[in-house]
Amino acid sequence: HYFIQSNLRIGSEMTGEEASVPSAVEVAKNHFDEGRYSECISTLTANAPASSLGTKVHLNLILCEYLKRGPDQDLECLLENFQVLESKMNKDAEDDEVDEVEKAVLLYNIALVHYQTKNYDKAVVILEKLFKLIEPLEEGLAYKICFLLVECYLSTYQTEGAAMVVYYLDKQMAAKSGESGDTPVQNEMHKARMHQYKTRLFAQQKCLKACKREIKNVLSVCGTTASSLFLKSEFEYLRNNFKKSCKLLNSAPKTCPSKEHIPTLYYNNFGCMHFKMQKYNLGVLYMSQALEANTEAVKAAPQGCNSTMYSLNHHYQILYNYGILLLHAGQPKAAFNCLTQAVTVYSRNPRLWLRIAECAIGVVKQSADSAQIQSCKSNTVKAIVGSGVYRKTILNTSNQSHPKQRSAELSKTPTPSLIYAALCLNNALDLLPVPDAANSSPVSALPAPPLKDTSKLRASVLCNLAYVWLGMGDPLQALQPAQELLNLKSAPPSLRLLGSVYAAEALILLNRSNEATSCLAPEFIESIIEQNAWQNKVNEEGGGSGSSSPDTGKLPGTQEQQTREIHNTIILNSVALYCMKRDLNRAKRILAQHLSTLKEDEVPPQATMLLVYIELRQGNTEDALNILKERQINLPNLST
């Protein structure tokens, strides 16, 4: 990580004898290096009044004042002073043209403050402007600008921009290799940093062969330092070689020259590996230790240097990882608390909004309090009076529980409820691009890589949204996302099957049973199943090409089993729908056809009871008794 730096030298605008200028520069530089900032300020201002000082001297004075005041000063105050100086320079440029090269040091420091405070987008805008003026700049400053730009690109997963700057640096270093401008130590530092950047770049691009080659270069130049071993551990992590990755982390030194807090990174990486190994509870343990280690690192940051504290603080990244692990470990309430804190920083991440909604749904499902579940229902219906043909429904004049009306209240105090889940899901939809939009750019998902294909994420959001609206007793609102999910051809088949169930349920509640029949038609369901089989076949054929995707293992089998269960549920719902419509012959035919495809131990008890019901309705009492005797159903265990 970089620290705020500037060239400490007196500007040519200063008055006085020319012979005294070099001595003043050297004295001020010595005072600055020794940490005697008051003497440095005195030296800088001794030879001229403040009005005649150059912009570079003003910049150095701001830096010295910031360091002089110690740990009470925040980087935001330093940024404000830099911006005041920048506005002054822009104002002077209206009268007399200011060379852009003169502003380079100031703009670099502004970008550096943005980087330290993790405002990477603002830093990239400034650094890209400086990169266009890189040729006339001093060599040391040019290297710093390029290195910082690569850091910002890699921190935001902009691999194309990072590759461009790395290529430029390679050319410059190759051209200057024969010259004697830099010392051998500086050359070695630049080489080591370049190899590390290339390793991180290839890792983000999933170019594992090139990444392996660069890791060898890193180890040969840097040795077995903490940074090089962490890079090699990440490489093994991408190859799903978790045992070797753990071994490399355990062998890494406990200190790092870049002042990173090793225990924080160590526990975080172990938590991520256990997540990939589907050992979620162990991952939760490691991530909680990472959070504690991060807190200790921030408290133990060197006094008088808030930039170090900012660079050490990975609080929100760890909270994000911690929340995801808690959600997978079956602790949705704790996950909800973590992710609602993380979303204050990563509010542009649609997948994070989806995870928060899933946490809220999980809390409601785990709740054993029926009153809480009833409170999630819509308050559209106030009461029902009378019976039979005299039965009447009394509606509320206003619905205060509607999410759009309570959004301001819920945003202040997030609570894990279905109403808040609906708000989060709507936020996720707003952040996602329109389906099939031409030239749609990747969606930012920091702290994770950007999302290039958002169709699956959109399908998950729509599926959850339909479920939430049904849970709140609003079938009309649930019907829209369910139908949109059914029309989304690129959605996973399992989610489209769920969409058909939710759409049918919403239509039945709206007394549109004829339309619900089309959603549960066997032909429609079979087409989705065939699509799922075709996708699985394509995935199997592409799986042997050395793909580096980490999402391999037991997931395809689990998804296939879930799809089969959803298919069985849909068929049974279709049969029940035909029974409601009193089309018993068609219901019996569909059920018999479905049971013929199942083994004896795979027949669900609900299917048997539906068959018994149909036989009883048709007056076949003996057949119904024979079915009950053959299947030996344990009636008390049936779910209602």
How would you portray this structure in words?
This protein is mostly helical. The protein is 67% helix and 1% strand. The protein has 30 helices and two strands. The protein has a two-stranded antiparallel sheet with strand order 1-2. Helix 9 (184-204) runs parallel beside helix 11. The radius of gyration is 32 Å and the shape is elongated. The two termini are 61 Å apart. Residues 1-22, 369-373, 540-557 and 635-640 have low confidence and may be disordered.
Features:
disordered N terminus; 30 helices; two-stranded antiparallel ribbon; 640 residues; single chain; 67% helix; mainly alpha; elongated
Quick summary:
The protein has 640 residues and is an all-alpha fold. The chain contains 30 helices and 2 strands.
Helix and strand arrangement:
Layout: H1 20-33, H2 37-46, H3 55-69, H4 75-95, H5 100-116, H6 120-131, H7 139-155, H8 159-175, H9 184-204, H10 208-222, H11 226-238, H12 242-251, H13 262-276, H14 280-299, H15 306-312, H16 315-328, H17 332-342, H18 350-366, H19 370-375, E1 381-385, E2 392-395, H20 407-412, H21 418-431, H22 455-471, H23 475-487, H24 493-509, H25 513-519, H26 522-542, H27 555-580, H28 584-595, H29 605-617, H30 621-631
Antiparallel strand pairs: 1-2
